[in-house]
Amino acid sequence: MANGTADIGVIGMGTMGANLALNMAEKGFRVAVQNRTPAKAFAVRDDNPDLADNVLPAETLEDFVKSLKTPRRVVFMVPAGQPVDDEMAKIRPLLQEGDVMVDAGNADFNDTVRRSKEVEGSGLKFVGMGVSGGELGARHGPSIMVGGAKDTYPLIEPVLTKIAAKYQDEPCVAWLGPDGAGHFVKTIHNGIEYADMQMIAEIYGIMRDGLKLEPKRMAEVFRDWNTRELASYLIEITAVNLDEIDPETETPMVEVIVDEAGQKGTGRWAVIEAEKLGVGATTLEAAVAARGLSSRRGERADAAKLYEGVEPGQAQFFADEAGLAELESALVTAKIIAYAQGYAAMAAASDENSWNLPLGTIAEIWRAGCIIRSHFLDDIAKAYDKGHTVVNILQSPDFVGRVAKGQSALRRVVAKAALAGIPVPALSAALAYFDDYRRARGTANLIQAQRDLFGAHTFHRFDKDGAIHHQWPAV
Ligand code: 6PG
Q: Domains in the chain, ordered, with CATH?
């Protein structure tokens, strides 16, 4: 391999790393590739003869580094956590001033902030970059959320712009802010992904247990919904999931799949960070919690036996298909609320970390390539593109009308589901948030009274300034 000829290098030839490298190679970049087990890097070249000229596997990390043009651009696509620190520690002594290290994995943004600080002053540059779109996205065009020093971005931008997904010819990549900004945005993307998927699964639950629809019919409904407001990748794949027949049993594939959802932690991080920022993203939280409960299948089966006799007996609320339009409208409305929560978390993080996150741009780069891609994101992009500040999507003039119109459907679906004993935790969380959010006078006055009684925590009065402690009767 000729030294100093590779435009960029990728370390970690797992599914995502290999596909990202092949995407770069296909777009005309010479890509050095490296893996802990070098054979894997050679296999990426050998298994893709069309792109072999642009894929340069290296036996050792030293060879890998030597093969790169300067300033060197090294992308890590290794499991999040310690492996990133390990790879960085190994390569740093081999790099020179001005070289760029890019962590493209699903990192915890707190780690990205820490790593940025560790690299500071060393002459090396560090970028934390969220990449969404799964295997196919990595190969043919992901959505890319970049964080790090602004003046580092031009060093990687030419490659990223070429490999990113395109929405009406616009590349779905942007520099979003310093240090952890890119990975934070990717984390919120995943939290929204969880909420989107959970709400779809809840609607599926109503279709299955309330309306007693067959998966094939459900697939038709989701395909129909995919032609309107809900049009999105997740609705599209749901129809495919529901249509699939298991070749072994010749029954719908969804019916042979165990009802326990896995999770790698990014959805949970989104919820934890939102809570830390004081903007509880309750719909996202309900989705994370539902995955947790789903995995306690044995315990659920035992509980089901204990409550066998307790039948809500109201399943007739969903007795016919006439309610499908109502389900569609409820899902649209809850989706707007879930996204509003994700956006509120990003706005708060932006303030907290002085990132100045471009919220409209984030919606723009999510319109294609990523898992939550949808036309709906174009509406969010437009809401942020009017030059006025959007306090919360639920206060944006573009969405107020839609939520006002759809809220009654959401309300009826949540109420009917409750009466029918069909769990809809994310849909109900969205509705509760909406009702709480639009209530000018809440009930926290009572909480303040309680806090003051048992702990002299003080409260404020409407008619006086300052913190006040009241002498409550002794209890
Ligand atoms: C993406 C996805 C991806 C994530 C998977 C699985 O944007 O491409 O968010 O990064 O790893 O969706 O996540 P869970 O295993 O947590 O469901």
A: 8-178 (3.40.50.720), 187-438 (1.10.1040.10), 445-474 (1.20.5)
